[in-house]
Amino acid sequence: MATILIVDDSGLARRSTRKILEGAGHTVIEAQDGLAALELYFTEKPALTLLDVTMREMDGIEVLKRIRELHPAATVIIVSADVQSSTREMAEDGGAVAFVIKPIQPALLLATVDDALRGAAS
Question: What pTM was computed for the model?
């Protein structure tokens, strides 16, 4: 299984996502904001990052951009309640491999994570 970084300013969202991922055998690390996410990404080198869009200080699209600038092969899934097509387009343009809408459906999240990890291994 993989090490996955969850980035979300909501403690509840992080806990519920952690429960889903750990239940599937993954190792989870967490960050509550963009700056902590960048630090953890480069110190822990997770196989996959789940990234919320709406956060204080630095939004998820900016975090995605910075991660991809320094590690173009990074595997990032955007997980957000923001369903606007413009947000999805910014995520795709920024290099996200998928977009999962909140509230999270566990089966959909796990299928998306599995697909992303298989794609990263190719």
Answer: 0.95
